[in-house]
Design a protein that fits this description.
452 residues; mainly alpha; 19 helices; binds phenylalanine
């Protein structure tokens, strides 16, 4: 355990505060927006099984490792890896792992903020009753209108980036911690209401069957890569977000136990989102593979037809906005911590620089949905390219590096000291982090490259 030092940015006030903040980081658009649509695109049940396997066998051990490295290093991911490499007598170039993460965070936030902006636009649509008594065609037209309008999207993207910068400027306890205390439980409660509605929608059995009945003939190497990449994305792993949160963790807290809570909550929210959405898809004869618009084309149907739907819709999109916000602050925090520690900037200035860069990228992402939609690289528009690069490649690569460093480079005695696990627990973790996690990531990469 390492209570000898503290990060210069302060610390979480308690274990509970850390769990909330890390859960806030993990639970976000990934669970409610992305998980359902990629499940829809990849055929359902079998994809969900691969994803759950990746969370348990790769995600959980890597999350333990990433929090541990952060807490031991007590600095931003780049400096943390630099000093841990020195401590372990390893190559100082391990710090590039931190750089990879920082660039990854920039690329992720560039599109994350745009999608979060959509959820804000939908707050207004709910409030003004635009879903009332609509059919699937009307709801799709609403979404298509938003996609076609750069102005609207840039407006909401800007509001969201400003909100993110506001929170991060206030620092660890005053900003990050405060914002998650009430939001997470409220989001959970609202999802349960939507699940209850979905149960009565007429498509319930079909929805459940789609989600949980695996048909492995429906998935290929790319689907497996997407499932694995999503395990990293949804748990916020592989880019230093959880590492930097770990650096604010008090020394006496059990890392393994907190990881189980975080990963458990994250998985439950994703599955609930799926259970809320797919029955609506089937009851309304919609396309499960509709892509990034899926939740925006399904849930409003429910809101438009339930009593008080405008209010539930409003609450839902407000909470989705908050879920996105508690994630986006963790995506930008490594860069802010780095700018403060290494470039001698005030937190405020650091937020402006990091936020400004992500904002500019976001504007280009907005255009990729309309005026630049024809510009493609490897058959992907800018949004799809950023998503693929980060979730499917950079995060698993970062995770692989974390696993190799924690499992093979760091002195086992140091890892044992940090984790304070009973001997069998430590051995189990060591086995997963040394063998299972790195080989799984590696095999999936080979598979995608067609080598295997
Ligand atoms: N886990 C977040 C989500 O599911 C996204 C995220 C990715 C956050 C990477 C931090 C780092 O929405």
């Amino acid at each position: 355990m390492s209570d000898k030092t503290q990060s210069i940015h302060g610390a979480w006030s308690s274990r509970f505060a850390f769990i909330l903040a890390a859960t806030g980081s993990a639970v976000g658009l990934g669970n409610i927006w992305k998980f359902p649509y990629i499940t829809g695109q990849n055929g359902g049940g079998a994809f969900v099984m691969v994803y759950l396997f990746c969370v348990a066998a790769i995600g959980v051990p890597i999350m333990i490792a990433e929090i541990m490295l952060g807490r031991r290093g007590r600095q931003n991911p780049i400096n943390t890896m630099q000093s841990l490499a020195v401590e372990a007598g390893a190559d100082p170039r391990w710090q590039y792992m931190g750089w990879l993460g920082m660039v990854g965070g920039f690329l992720i936030l560039g599109y994350y903020s745009v999608i979060a902006g959509w959820s804000m636009a939908y707050i207004v649509k709910s409030f003004t009753g635009q879903f009332f008594s609509s059919d699937a065609g009307d709801i799709k037209a609403l979404f298509d209108d938003l996609m076609a309008s750069p102005i609207q999207q840039i407006f909401w993207h800007t509001v969201f980036m400003l909100a993110t910068m506001q929170v991060v400027m206030r620092g660890v306890q005053g900003g990050l911690e405060k914002s998650v205390r009430f939001l997470m439980p409220a989001l959970f409660f609202l999802l349960l209401i939507l699940v209850a509605y979905a149960m009565s929608s007429g498509g319930y059995e079909q929805g459940i069957e789609f989600l949980f009945n695996p048909d492995f003939s429906k998935i290929d190497a790319d689907a497996v890569l997407t499932a694995m990449g999503h395990a990293f994305f949804t748990l916020s792993l592989g880019m230093g977000a959880i590492m930097v949160y770990g650096s604010y963790l008090p020394g006496h807290v059990s890392i393994a136990k907190t990881t189980f809570y975080i990963a458990g909550a994250d998985t439950i929210v994703a599955l609930l989102a799926g259970i809320a959405i797919f029955p609506l898809v089937f009851a309304n004869h919609l396309e499960a593979a509709a892509g990034p618009g899926l939740i925006f084309q399904t849930l409003p149907l429910a809101f438009g037809h339930m009593g008080g739907g405008w209010l539930f819709g409003l609450l839902f999109f407000v909470l989705l906005f908050f879920a996105a916000l508690t994630s986006s602050i963790s995506i930008i925090e490594p860069a802010v911590a780095w700018l403060v520690e290494n470039k001698d900037l005030q937190r405020r200035e650091a937020c402006l620089w990091a936020g400004g860069a992500c904002w500019a990228l976001g504007v280009a992402v907005v255009f990729s949905f309309n005026i630049w939609s024809e510009h493609k690289w490897f058959d992907k528009n800018l949004f799809e390219l950023l998503d693929y690069l980060t979730a499917n490649l950079m995060l698993p690569l970062g995770g692989l590096a974390i696993a190799v460093f924690a499992g093979w480079k760091m002195k086992p005695a140091h890892a044992e000291q940090e984790l304070e696990l009973p001997p069998q627990g430590f051995q189990a973790w060591q086995f997963l982090i040394r063998y299972v996690a790195p080989t799984s990531v590696f095999l999936v990469f080979l598979h995608v490259l067609g080598v295997l």
